[in-house]
Structures are given as structure tokens and as C-alpha cells.
Write a structure and sequence with these properties.
Blueprint lengths: L5 E12 L4 E3 L4 E2 L3 E17 L7 E4 L2 E2 L2 H18 L5 E7 L9 H16 L6 H9 L13 E4 L12 E5 L7 E7 L8 H11 L3 H21 L2 H20 L10 H15 L5 E4 L6 E5 L4 H9 L4 E8 L5 E2 L4
Parallel strand pairs: 5-7
Antiparallel strand pairs: 1-4, 1-14, 2-3, 4-7, 4-8, 5-6, 8-9, 10-12, 10-13, 11-12
Helix pairs in contact: 1-2, 2-3, 5-6
The chain binds (3R)-3-hydroxy-3-methyl-5-(phosphonooxy)pentanoic acid.
The site of (3R)-3-hydroxy-3-methyl-5-(phosphonooxy)pentanoic acid (PMV) has 15 residues, from α2 and α4.
Length: 331
């Protein structure tokens, strides 16, 4: 066993068909499969330094000590790493996010994918991507998809130990190079975390069973749209899936309303651009007010300009579909 400092960058991913509901809340096993695209540039850089002098893991995120809830999740990932490496040595961990935390932009996905990648390397483990995705999943479910680049499927799996609940790449970034516009909306962290929100929806949303059925079908329809490289077909599935998840959230007691007025503004704008101006674009929304728009490269200038002009959109970020988690040699 060789212990040494390691750094990794992992990008965020945005789900095209969503994960909202777990069969195991401890190790994040989903009730349904989901499909995402990995975004380039936006993500987390994490450095793991094994340190024999530490009694527990230490972690700093954007120069602030990590809160106790976050440390529990980090502890789960690092426990598996130590078990696989056969050591008790704890680590000092430093993470820097290039995406705002807890605004519905999956910062936890990049954080735990980067932790899994850097942690495995720091403890001398050579894990394949499938195993790494399972490791990232134990910190945050959606993190398993950020191990891979491009278009990614997360299998729900059936096993209790989660060994089959891992992700795989369906298309490489260059296979269908759609562009991405993130419309940032709202300030500060969201009020109800995905972890708590999911649990509440499972327990109280009258739409929850219907939502799960939708997920299984939408994954198949999304794959078909991907094979055809058909933006219209993709828009039908992806927008329908996001709206169905938010309907399930809103019907939860008490209702989870993540949207702001500008969220609805972007939804209508994207539909107008597509239906009235013939632009190839579609939207999706995670557990927060911000909206992510996918578009063909040729339509990017017009789509960005229209979205950026909507009142309440504080900022837009343009990005691409990119590679998955990777080590940063001198990070
Ligand atoms: O992995 P978590 O606990 O951050 O949950 C993510 C949930 C959604 O972002 C709303 C959907 C998804 O599939 O990423």
C-alpha cells in the first residue's frame, strides 16, 4: 500500500431523466435508472492527503470547514477507500468548487466524484470506472454519473450491496456535441436539500408511484432520441421528465417549490425559441431554481442572448458536454 497526495477534478452533470427516490438511503441506491450529460469546466477540484497524525478526516471546502452532515457523507466514501486499501490512516481533504453550492446545479455530484477519484489514487487503489462510480455514489447518488464523460446511464441495480448500481457511458462528448447554457437564478443555498426532499416525496407525494413508472419509460425514450440524434425527440422526453419530477416535488407535503418566477420565464422562452423560431433547444431543471438549456452549436448565440435577457436570470454560463473525473498531476 502506498499513500501519497493526489488531486482530481470532477465536473458536474445534469440529469436528462432524473433521479428522485431511493431504495436505500444509506448508500444511495435509486429506485429508477437515470441519464445525464457531464458538463465541462464546472466542477470540483479535490486534493486528498493521507496523514497518519490525524484521528479523523478533515475537510475544507472553498476554504471553509465542511459542515457535520457533509463530513458524514465524506466519511462513508473514505471508509470504503480505507477498507479497500487495508489501512486506518485518515486524510486531510481540500476541495474547491467552480460551481455555486446547493443551487440545483449538482455541486455534490462533482464533489463526491472528485473525492472518489482523488481518494482512490491517494490510497494507491487502481479502480476501474465502474467501481469508482459505485464509490462516488456512496457520497451522493448523482456523483456516480460524473465519473464518466459524455452521455451517461446510471443503472438502478437490484442488489442490496449496490454492486450493480453503477454508471456507464452511452455516448462520448464528441458523439453528439450539443452546447449547454446554464441560466443562474436565485441566490443562496436551497431550503430543502435533495436528500431530505427525496425522502419527503417518497413518503407523501401522491404522484410518486406514477413518477417512478415515468422514469423507466423516459430512460428508454431518451436512449432512442440519442440514437437518432434528434433534438425534438429529446426535448419531448427531457422536458416532460423534469416537469414530472417537479410536479412530484410540488405535490409533496409540505410542497417542494424550487422554482422562482424567472424559472418559468426560461421555460416559456425555450419553448418559444423552439416552436416559433425553429431553434434546436430544450430545458431541464434540477432541485433548485436554475435552468439548464441544451442547444445545437449553431443556435447557441441566439439561445444565449434570449435566455440572458430574461428578468431574474442573474448570469448565464456557456459550456459543453465534456470528459469525466480525472487526476490532476500537479493539482
Ligand atoms: O445526488 P443528489 O442527492 O444531489 O440528488 C440529485 C437529484 C437531482 O439533481 C434533482 C436529480 C438528478 O438526477 O441529478
Amino acid at each position: 500500500m502506498s499513500l501519497s497526495r493526489a488531486a482530481a477534478f470532477a465536473p458536474v452533470n445534469i440529469a436528462l431523466t432524473k433521479y428522485w427516490g431511493k431504495r436505500d438511503h444509506e448508500i444511495n441506491l435509486p429506485l429508477a435508472p437515470s441519464i445525464s450529460v457531464t458538463l465541462s469546466d464546472l466542477g470540483t477540484l479535490t486534493v486528498v492527503q493521507p496523514d497518519e497524525s490525524l484521528e479523523g478526516n478533515r475537510m475544507v471546502v472553498n476554504d471553509q470547514p465542511l459542515d457535520p452532515k457533509g463530513l458524514v457523507k465524506v466519511g462513508r466514501v473514505m471508509r470504503v477507500v480505507r477498507q479497500l486499501a487495508g489501512t486506518d490512516v485518515r486524510a486531510g481533504i481540500r476541495a474547491v468548487n467552480t460551481v455555486p453550492t446547493a443551487q440545483g446545479l449538482a455541486s455534490s455530484a462533482s464533489a463526491f466524484a472528485a473525492l472518489a477519484k482523488a481518494g482512490a489514487s491517494a490510497y494507491g487503489l487502481e479502480l476501474d470506472e465502474r467501481t469508482l462510480s459505485g464509490l462516488a455514489r456512496t457520497g451522493s447518488g448523482s456523483a456516480c454519473r460524473s465519473i464518466h464523460g459524455g452521455w451517461v446511464l446510471w443503472h438502478a441495480g437490484e442488489r442490496d450491496d449496490g454492486a450493480d448500481s453503477v454508471s456507464e457511458q452511452l455516448l462520448a462528448p464528441e458523439d453528439w456535441p450539443l452546447r449547454v447554457v446554464v441560466a443562474h437564478i436565485g441566490e443562496g443555498p436551497k431550503k430543502v436539500s435533495s436528500t431530505n426532499g427525496m425522502k419527503l416525496s417518497e413518503q407523501t407525494s401522491p404522484f410518486f408511484d406514477a413518477w417512478l413508472k415515468t422514469c423507466h419509460q423516459d430512460v428508454e425514450d431518451c436512449k432512442a432520441a440519442m440514437i437518432n440524434r434528434d433534438v425534438q425527440q429529446l426535448a419531448h422526453v427531457v422536458e416532460g421528465n423534469a416537469l414530472a419530477m417537479h410536479a412530484t416535488m410540488m405535490a409533496t407535503r409540505p410542497g417542494l417549490v424550487y422554482w422562482q418566477p424567472a424559472t418559468i420565464g426560461v421555460i416559456h422562452a425555450v419553448r418559444r425559441l423552439r416552436e416559433q423560431q425553429g431553434l434546436s433547444c430544450l430545458f431541464t431543471i434540477d432541485a433548485g431554481p436554475s435552468v439548464v438549456v441544451l442547444t445545437e452549436a449553431g443556435d447557441l448565440p441566439k439561445v444565449s442572448a434570449a435566455i440572458g435577457a430574461i428578468p431574474g436570470v442573474t448570469r448565464i454560463t456557456q459550456t459543453r458536454i465534456g470528459p469525466g473525473a480525472h487526476l490532476v498531476p500537479n493539482g
